Structures are given as structure tokens and as C-alpha cells.
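Researcher: Last one for today. Full complex below.
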Amino acid sequence: MPETQSVIGAQFKSTLSPLVRVESLLGLVIGTTGGLLESAVLKTSLFSGGLLGLTFGLAFGFFFARRATSPGAGLIWGLGSSFLLWILTAGGFFHFVATTGRFAMRLQDAQGHFAELVAYVLCLGMPVGVGLGIRGGFRTSRPDKKFAWGRAIVAGGFAGTLGGLIFGRWVSSGDYFPLLAGFGELSSRRMTISLHFAVALLIGVAFGLLFQRDVRAYGSCMGWGLGFGIFWWFFGPLTLLRLASGMPLDWSAEQGSAVFGSLVGHILYGLILGVAYATIDKIWVRLFIQSDPLNREIEGAGLHILRSLGWGAIAGLLGGLASMPVMIATGVLPKVAGVDSTLLGLCGVFIHLSVSAAIGMTYGLLFRDEASARGDAITWGCLFGLIWWYLGPMTLLPLLLTGVCDWSTDAASALLPSLLGHLIYGAVTALIFFLFDRRYTRSLLLDPRTSTRELRRLRPVGTPAPALWLFALSLGVLLPILLG
Amino acid sequence: MNRSFRRNSIGLLSGAIASTALTATLHYGPWSLPLGVAIGVAYSAAVRPTRRAYADNLMAGGSLGVPLWGLISVITVPLLFGQMPEWNAEQMRQHFPALVGWVVYGALLGIINQALQDGAEYLFGPEPAPKVPAVSVDKRIVILGGGFAGMHAAECLEETLRGDASISLTLVNETNALLFTPMLAEVAGSSLEPSHISTPLRSTLRRTDFIRGVVAGVDLEKRFVILDSDGGADGLSSRREIPYNHLIFALGSVSNYLGMTNIEKFAFNFKSLLDAIRIRNRIIEMFERADVESDPLLRSSLLTFVIAGGGFAGVELAGALNDFAHGILADYPRLHPHELNIMLVHSRDRVLPELSESLARYAQEKMQLRGVSFRLNTRIVDAHPGMVLLSDGEIHTETLVWTAGTAPSPLLKSLPLEKDKRGALLVDSTLALQGCPGLWAIGDCAAVTDAATGRPCPPTAQFALREAEVLASNIRAQLEGRTARGFHFDSLGALCVVGHQTACAELRIPFARSKFLRFSGLFAWFLWRGIYLAKLPGLERKIRVLMDWTIELFFPRDIVQTIDLK
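Model: Here's the assembly. Have a good evening.
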């Protein structure tokens, strides 16, 4: 790892001066244009919008340009930084500290600034990030990770279509297509389904093209899928589909609340897309890359899986114990157990712990190669908990108990208390799993061959994982609160 | 500067500065500072420092603000004030400003922490690497032999001494793979590819130093093993000495020809992978020669295959060769089934003395029905080219396979150690050689007595594996000055394949000592395949064997000669 870092550091150092100049200029131009566009859409002062865009573009070019090594990486860094910009400006921090000397923002104020959130994401974060990412793609040659167009299009397209198929069959029974929310009525059902698959294919191909270099296993694919799902909700139902159906843009919190169900749908679609993409990509890599003796890894398939499942089960059990007080106190446990609240007791606890252990096994299976430090583990764990909140109590549990899933803001509000329980569960599970894995890895480091496994896991500095954590985790928690 | 002190100081300072965001957004009064400091210290300790990773830390810190908001603002603080956590939807919405504050605090913490890390590096140099105590190897454990006992002993020692770099493990073996002997007969019978039942020792053992070589001797006084490694640069063998503190004899056994030199000269051995390949090729060679042989007597001699010994190895080999030979007859239209003679010669009145009499009779009847002939109560006394002399007659044959007896490794003869009448090393119930500190023996080369029953343990793989586990535990106990435990194991039973989809099984009933379940036929065969497939080391090997078995269901066995035996 130190060698990797020093190589990257040397690359950055050698290109720093011209890089800062060119990228800052590019950021400035795109940012200013985005700021003007944002002002036009929000009908605010062009000067202030342009100035904000200029500042954002300049700052992004200065601070994040080195990280935007591809359009996908640039997009994620752009999304993360635009969210941070919203928190600091429209979200209220700077404004209220400056005007009142004390932060006293209310939720209603933030809801009033929801349009700015969408605008910052779509007019500033996305174009500046992607623009500098495209530039970064030409600038940075990463011989360790060559981009394979065929792999990206085939794996992404197939995963997108597969996700669309699973998702479409699931929700078409209720005649509700979340990927098309905001588009309005189409003349025929066949056209609706065709458009659903076209959007699914588009999202899938875009996922493959943008993130092939950044995702590495199921866990990161799911994380990226979650973030991409949230982004696509801003871009699709709130923007493109409305424009395509001839309706005026409406980025208000009310419109966000109206299509909140579609947000859950997009998040779940992103997860399905991530898992499908990871599966197809792994098969591709196994068949065409790792089958080459020059690329073969020391540890064969399956060696680590059983161990990860065991650790995941124990970690999940401990995570379940840690989150149990929250689940009991918020009255979520009887629902999780699927039994009447009068039966809560050993039965409920037993079912809760069993489910926790089983879900912990999925963490072991899907996220085993993601975290390289305790901080990373906790963040990945929180993301895992958030994923399970959308997947479990928001979707699967009502589906199993009642046959339908309720993605309304009311349902999300009712389930908000369990969101904390899920975050705690995820963080504890991930931390315990990490400790198990680290203990084992340390003992293996006696053998120099196996230390390569540890190196493989260390995410090189500069990958957009931290930006993804901020964007996906914050918005995944914030949006149900803000739009409820 | 001490690594922990440096990280804690940086965390403390960055937490204190970033806590201004908490002071501005939360209403915790003076508590914001210690709260911010405590989290700063934890953050600094949990995040791997990397030079100039400002963007990364800004985002990572900001994202950690979300769970911190839930944990502290929504749950902990109300609890500290004696109230219920404020986690219903409305209460959480009221905590929205705190969420903003925590995200800003996290982002600030990340970026300040990074700035201080870089500053510290500029002023004091890079963070000192975690102190790894200089580990010198204090104890050397050397295992002689890489069979079931040796390899499993190495595996168990790796596990039990995990993380202790002061102890080195070395395994010496003549080949670089563990041979899974229960499936050896299937290699001879062309059911399985030879390499599919061998597991490379280098790949399986993670921290053990593997040396392929022949043990020439052991200097018990100076405590080193003398190796006769072949393959030097000049093609000549070279001697090498390996010092040890603990030496484990797991050398296994070799065929015992009972002093009959002619048999040793003419018979095929059946102990190694090469032996099995030779036998398979011998069968094909005999068929090829018989196909062009017009003399009926000579053809009969060529197509007669004698297996000496009616134990597990002999019976399973006879069954496998019988199936193979009958199966390939279709490729030799000039040969007739009645010309083929697979004969098993055994010195006692029944085969399979390890199993009950009823199962042994069943096995014999089944094999006879499938074409195997038996000569019981008969000894092989001599052999010449084209002929085997029995205690009650003679057989004209070109092929004799010897499975009638085994003896411990001949190396043991040269060592001044106490042995039993077989020549196996006498060990006490803890598997240590009495009066020889640091010397241990397990497997076929050891005369082990069960600590609970006082009975001698049979030289089987089942016992060897359990002995290896106890041995590893006892070596660790001795290293730590604890008392070693005695070896005790109740046999789980035995399984034997006697022909196509037919086997005999005798399995001990759990928790009922000396009571066995006996069954035979297809179910026993399924059990045999299932159990041994599960025991075959390595997922890849399991898949390969499973594929071989599946292919065998649909296609005839291969008759390509892989080595020249002419």
C-alpha cells in the first residue's frame, strides 16, 4: 500500500501545477454555466447563481479535480460536494450562522430549500464532476485498471435489463412504474413497459460505463447502486421525465414528496442493478481475466466465503443485540418478528436475532472485501444498514405480511425510528466483522503470499468511496425526513 | 513521537476545533467541546492516515456525521437527561438542525484532522510504523512425512500456533502432494484422473515451509534432520541439515514383502500415485498384447491379473480393475470375457477382516457375481516372470499386484529408538516418544495405544487425522508448560467399495460404544462417495472428481496409455 500511495502521490505531484490551472479553469467555466442554469430554473438572481457556480467550479477544480479520474468518479465526487454545498449554503449552515450568529434552522426552512438541493446536484455537481472526470480520463492513465468498453456496456446493459425485468414484474402488478414516475400517462401499456425497459437499459449501461473502474465487489456495487439510484431519482422523475412529458420543471419539496415512492423504487432498482452488475462483472472477470494464469489469485474461489459467512453470522448476531433495545423501544421488533405485539418476548427476540444473524451473513458475503480500516467498516456498515432499511421494513416485510409494499411518505415516517436501529445494526455488524477479519489477516501475514490479499483490499487513495458515503448515506437518511 | 500519542493529540486538537460546528448548531453548551474532542480522538484512531487526502477525509468525516447524529443527538443525549430517546418521526424532524450540524462537524473534523496529520508529518516526519517486535525463531518444529498424519499435523499446528512467529514449521516429504489414498483404486481403474486425488502441500499449507526431499537420517543428539534432496544444479543430490526442537515422525508405511525378493522384484506396488498409473497402464498393455496373441495359453496368462491381499486396498483394487477390464473389452473385439481373470489371493478364510463377517461374505459374493475369482486360505510364496507360485499351486500371469502387507518406513530401522515388533515407533498415550524429549510420532509409523481403552490403535487414516489433532494440542501444551492429554478415539466405522455402485458400510452408532450399523449396496456406495468426496481436501479437487464421476456415467473409460511399460 505505501508503494501504491507513493506512486499515486508522485503522479499527482508531477502534474499538480498545470493540473490546478487547467482543471480550475474548466471547473470555473462549467460551474458558472451550471450556476446560471440553476438561477434560470429557480428564477433567482443570475449574478448570485453565476457567482455560486463559479465558486463551486473553482473549488471543485482545485480540491477534487485530482480525484475525478473518470466521468464516473467525477460524478460521485460532484454529487458529494454538491450535497456538502447545499448543507453549507441553502441547507442553512453559513446563512444562519452569518445572519443570526447562531444556527437556528427549522425543518420547514430546509424543505423550502429542497429545490436548491436538486439544482446543486443536477446543475453544479453533475456537470462539473462529469466534465472534470472526462478531462481526468484523458489525463490519467491507470495501467492497473484498463477500461473495457465491451464489458461495461454488456455487463451494465444486461444488469440494467435484468433489474428492469425483476423490478417491472414486481411493480407492474400494481400498475406503478417507479422508473417512469413523473412522466405522466402513456397511451398504451405496451409503450409504458417499453419505456420502462429503455430507461432500465439506459441506467444499466450508464452504470457500467461510469463505474466500472470504481466498483470492486458486491458491497461497493450495492453502495454505488444506491447512490446512483438516488441521483437518477433527481435526474429522471424530478427532471427529465417531466420535461419529456411536456410539464414544467418542479423541484419543490411538495413534488419530491409526491414522487417519494419512486425514490424508494429507484433505490431498490439501484440495489438490484448493483448486485446484477457485480454478478455479471465477476463472471466476466473470472472468465476472461482471472482465468489467465498471469492474473490468477493465490486464494481460489470459495476459500474465504465460508469463513466470511461464519463471521458475518456472529457479527450480525452482535449487531442484532446492539440494535435490539432500539427496536424494542420503538415498537419495531413485533413487526420484524411478524407476530402480534402481545407475543413479543422470547419469540420476537429469537426471530430478531435469527434474522440479524442471517443478514449479517449477507454482509460477510457481499461486503467482505470492502473495508480496510475501522472507520471504513463503520461507514460501509451504516450504508449496509440503510440499504436494509429500504429493503426490509420499507419493502420486503410489508410485502411478506400484506402482499403489497407501501412506499408513501407516511409509511417512511412511521418507520423512521427503525432507521436508527438499522444504522446501529449495520455499524456494529461491520465493525465486528472487520475485527474478525483483521485478526485472521494478521495471523496470515506471517506468510508473505497472503499479504497480497490485504493489499488488494486497500482502496487506493482517490477512489470516490468517501463521496459516495456522504451522498448516499446523508440523502438516504435525509430525504425521508425532509419529504415526510 | 509515539504513534498513539501523535494520533490522539491530532484527534484531540482537530476534534476541539471542529466542535465549534457543534457549539453553533447544538444546544449542548459546554459539553460540545468534550464531545467533539472524544469523537475526534476516535476518528483519528480509526482512519488510516494518508498524505494530502483532504477530499477523502472531508467526505468520509461528513458521512460519519449521519450515524453520530442518530446515536448522540437522537438517542444518547435525551437518555442522559433522563428522557426517552427522541426517535419518532416528528422528534427526528425536530432534530434536523442537529443533523446539519453533525455533517458539518464531521466534514470539518476530517479536513482538520488531515491538515494536522500533514503538518505533523512536515514537522516531525512520517508517522512511525506500528512497532512490530523483532521476532526471532525460537522453536523449530519439523514434520517428516506429508501423508494424512503429517499434513494434518501441519494444518493443526498452523491453527493452534497462529500468530506466533517465534515458532517455525517445516514439513519434509518425498512428493509435493498429499495422496488421497481412499480413491487410489479408482485411478488404477481409470475412473479418476491421477492428479485429481492429490492435493499440493504448498498450496494447502499457508505458513509451513515445505521441503521436497528424502530423509536420509536424523541426528538425535545434535537434533537435526539430514535431507537427501535431489535436483541440485548439477543434477546430483545434495545433503542438507534441518535443525529441530520438536520432531514429528509421520513417515507412513511401505509395502512389506515379507522377505520375498522375487515378489518385490516382479510385483506391482500399490501405495503411490505412480503405482496406480503403472497398474492402469499395465492392464491396457496386457490387453494390447493379448489382442495380437494367437496362443490361447499365453492370452490367458496376459489376461490374468492377480491381486495379493484381501484387505481394503486389495478388495477395492480388485473391484476397480474388474470393472475397468470388463469395460474396455468392447474396444478389443478379439478378446472374450471368459478369457479375463481377475483373481484375489488371500491368506485367511475371508476377505475384509476389518469388517464383520456378514459384510465380508456379501462383498465376496457380489464380486464373484461380477467376475472376480477368489483364492482364500492361500499364500503367495514366490513369483517368476509369467508365473506366481501359491502355497497350493501356481497361476500363470504376467501381472501381480501386492497389497498383502505393510511395514513402517525403513528409515526408522536406522534410528536408535524403541519400536514394536512391526518396527513402528513406540509412543506413550500423549504421542511422545518416551525418554526422548521433543520427539513425537503419529500415523502408520507409530505404535499408538488408546489412552482410554489401552488397546493399540489401527494404522488407518481415520486415526492418523485424530492423532494429528491431539499431537498439535500436546506440542502447544508442552511449549506453554501445560500437561499434555492422552489420545483416545473411537473408530467411526469403515466403508469399502466392491464394484460398480456397490459398497459395504459399517458405521458406529453415535454415543453407543461398540454398536455398529451395517448396510450394503447402492446406499452404502452413495455414502462412500459422499463421505470421501467431502473429505477430499480442496474445493477444486472435489469439483474435478465430481466431474470425473459424472463423465464416467456417460462415456467409457479411457484406454490411452500414458506411460510406456514395454
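Residues 215 and 227 of chain B are 5 Å apart (CA to CA). The mean pLDDT of chain B is 90.
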